[in-house]
Amino acid sequence: MSRFEKTESNSNSSKNEKAVQHPTDWWHENITNPFCNALIVEPANAITCTFDTFTHQKEVHRLTPSPVPQTSDFGTTVCQGAASAVGGVLPYALAGKFAGSGLRFLGARFEVEGALAKFAQSDRAAQIIGAGLYDGMRETRAGETHLRNGAAGAVNFTILEFIGGKGKCPFDRIFDRFMTGGVATIASAYVARPDLFPMAGSVKSSDVNFNRQFFAGAILNVLLPGTQHGVRKACDAMSLKLGSGIPIDRFVRSKEPSFANAFSSPNDLKLLDANRWATVQPNAEVNSYHAGKDLVTLKDSGNFKALRHELQHRNDARAKISEPGFVRAAGLLSKDKEQAWRVYRSVRQAQEVRAELANYHDTGLKTYAETVRNLKESIPSSSATHGDTYETLWRKEFQQFERTGGKFRPEVDFSSDFGFKMLHKESDLLYEQLRPKHSNVSSTLQQIVKRYDVPVPQLALALKHVNEFLNPSVVHPVDVDADKLAMQTLRLIGNPEKVSQGKHPTCAPASLEYYTYLKHPENATDLLSQVVRMNQFECLDGSPIVVNGLNVVPEKYWNRSFANQLFQNTAVNVHWQRKRDLTPWLSSDDNVNLKIRPGLTRYQRQWSNQMNESPYRLLDYSKFPPVPIHDRLPEHRNDPSSPLMTLNAVEDIHHQINGTTRGGILLSERFDNAVELADVLRERESRAQLPVLAWLDTRQPLLAHGAGEPSAGGGHAVVIKSYDPKSKRVSIFNPWGEMLHGVGIKDLFQATQDYDPSIVAGRKK
Amino acid sequence: MGEISNIGRIKKLPLPEGWSATREVLGQFGNSYLYHFGSPAAPDLQMSVFYRGMLVSSLSGKNFERILKKEPHQLTPEAILSISEVLGNCAQPDLYDIDKAATIKLSDKTVVDVEGQFPEFALENRTIFIDGGNDGCAVLEIVISGPKDVYSKYASMLDSCLKAIEWK
Q: What is the DSSP string of A564-585?
């Protein structure tokens, strides 16, 4: 800013002060002149001065600053300072912008990483360097040097960038910035002209108006953030207009919080890190990555899935992963053109599959393999660009590849909504099949399509499995109302909160069911499809799980749907039919036979007219008649319908149905205090590792209610769906058929503790 | 003579001669409890006190309360529908044939009294639905269930026991 502006001589000004001044003259001298000097004259002279220095010329191109009178009048001082600030803020903001562009250019050119990359992308660093360079370039006055001016500018803006503006209300923040700006200006004056400050607390008299500088610095600092923002927006708008895109970090920051949340998993952050110098052009014609321009284009700027896809293309292009394949195809051109085409095609297909798999980083092994298969099938016929399918596009590229003797490399990779085609196909099939009996199928399918939290290909797969058991040509081993089951399943896909354990002690498998419909609906429907068509489910480890008899006859009296029934009792059987012994329910210390035969211990429904008791029993079918397992477990004989699930058992079942999940799906059972619990949840939330299953005690206040006897409750599995670290509240799915929102961390912690009636009795006393 | 004591809202409910507690099932789902009572002389007949362990929806609870606040009366089909969640299986026409649904007073407390059959199991049934507290959302049930011949033999005896109920 115009810290040390030359003013008119005092003798003239003192005479002029006594004479009556025309208002227009006052306005020109005290507002217009300092404004124009700061906005135009000083920046112009800074550029020309630098040019003259390098060309060893002396003030050839200098503009004469307009006169600004020295004054002791406070009001006039403030006006001059304000005018300087208003005029000077834009040049400083522009200086910061240019410095930032320069830093980013260098960062991208040398592909710096880590702290250096953060520095190069930092708007703060850019502003400090820009201000330092600008002040260093400016004309020097008596007692000044370019170096000290530059340092003063850097010091000034370092203080402005890092201190101040932190008040709670807007007025506080403005006042904060005002004071910081004024103080920073005086501090920088010390750096530029230490001779003016011979002793602490004293200032030498000079032609420097410190009051004016203070106000100029103060007001500039208030105006600075808005001006910086405006300059950045204007520059970005121009870049976008020219089609050259904006840096990816600014693009992601400019999006709504929902976009940032959707793009926040560890793999996403890794992808962003690897592509930190990418530029993004939103609202383009197509989703693509242009290798030649190193530019990602997005049709819909909110489409984070397309962004992942294109960034993966960028990764591939820069790592030249496909180059060996292209070289091999080129080598085959002269020998076997058909083979060359097949190789070229498979290279391009693999590129698209890899790019699309960037959207599947959290998927389990089971889904991954099937997804790769489906992508390989669906990509070639999907629309790539301008009405061409990928197959057509690749053919056209191959012609160029051939013409150039194998030298051609595709410049542009496109992404398509691969899954949508399949989703629409499966959805249309279901609609046609179900509409005659279920008029609300359309709204149910709409709910599914709106499951934006699940990748489209997974939703498409989920519907495909429903179509499998709905197919009229499929003969079901048991008489099943397939339409009704399909509608129940579709409702669960659209709204997993409809999962219920009913009147069964299956809270743990029901919690897993909710988790599966939430994260992997395709695995839930695959399970149902296998059981309905074959009375069998194949686990990830290849074990066949038999689900037959009354297990596949719809329940009537126990308050859960057939879809819930099939998933939950199959899940229990996934665990028990693969077990070989009765640990942890018995141990070798119990002096009993622990062994059970795999496949012959089954959780099986019995005929019952007891409508308020679950009719399921764990039975040992190696004996005739089958013997209840609970007969061998003294502590559990009075609870014969319990499926004997531990959280470790649930994790085992989850693995067999869904594959592995990063971070696991269980919350550690014991915490010493609520703070520890909050820390774990915050960590999981930041790593996108929610939801998670937890074990609560229903006798604690969170779940104890109504006419229940305290002794009636006990361990209960729930799903902690989400955690808000700001409010320290969670949302919980309770398999009784309810969602609990806004649960405080202290209440949750208490619910994880074992209920102790003596504590309650003590409180009552 | 045996009695049921201190279960939910029930302070005391006398049992017929020769009847006693047979079985209990606690915490099977929610905070549920289920206490069975019967007699060796009539093994197929049982009286149970049942709490389903979780609250019904607040709408159902409000409807239940509203019905209980009125003077004892027969329930219309619309009223039955409005508390179908409370009545559970008894409100499912494909599972249960209703003979009678009305509110009655048992020792100054109004309850919903439903009688009918579960045709699939050939069971006669009478279920008393009680507001267990919590704005009509915690529903306690006294369930009497058995084959027709045994049920009719003990029906009036069990009715007398119900009329002698004492509430907390």
A: HHHHHHHHHHHHHTT--B-TTT
Residue type present at position A441: V
Homologous superfamily of B3-167 in CATH? Answer: Mog1/PsbP, alpha/beta/alpha sandwich (3.40.1000.10)
Domain segments of chain A as ranges = 10-242, 248-416, 468-649, 667-764
Are the CB atoms for A693 and A511 separated by under 8 Å?
yes
pLDDT (tens place) for every residue of chain B, 168 residues total:
789 999 989 999 999 999 999 988 888 887 889 999 999 999 999 999 999 888 899 999 999 999 999 999 999 999 999 999 999 999 999 999 999 999 999 999 999 999 999 999 999 999 999 998 868 999 999 999 999 999 999 999 999 999 999 998
Minimal-distance CA residue of chain B relative to A506:
B29
Q: List, for residues A324-341, the tens digit of each pLDDT value.
A: 999 999 999 999 999 999
- Cα-only R_g, chain A: 36
* Gap between the Cα atoms of A502 and A560, Å rounded: 5
Chain B residues with CB-CB distance to A709 below 8 A: 7-8, 26, 31, 33, 51
Q: Please say whether the beta carbons of A214 and A185 come within 8 A.
A: yes
ipTM confidence: 0.93
**Fold category of A667-764 in CATH:** Cathepsin B; Chain A (3.90.70)
B33 contacts B9 by C-beta, under 8 angstroms: no
Burial pattern A203-241, b for ≥16 Cβ within 10 A else e, equals eeeeebbbbbbbbbbbbbbbbbbebbeebbeebbeebbe
Average pLDDT, chain A: 86
Number of A–B residue contacts, CB under 8 Å: 99
pLDDT digits (tens, 9 = 90+) for A285-313: 888 899 888 899 998 777 777 888 899 99
Of B28, B53, B134, which has the smallest distance from its Cβ to A613's Cβ?
Answer: B28
Residue of A nearest to B49 (CA): A612
Verify cis geometry, omega within 30 degrees of 0, for the bond prior to A625: yes
Q: How far apart are CA A692 and CA A717, in angstroms?
A: 10
**Non-local CB neighbours of A591 within 8 Å, separated by 6+ positions:** none
* pTM score, whole prediction: 0.67
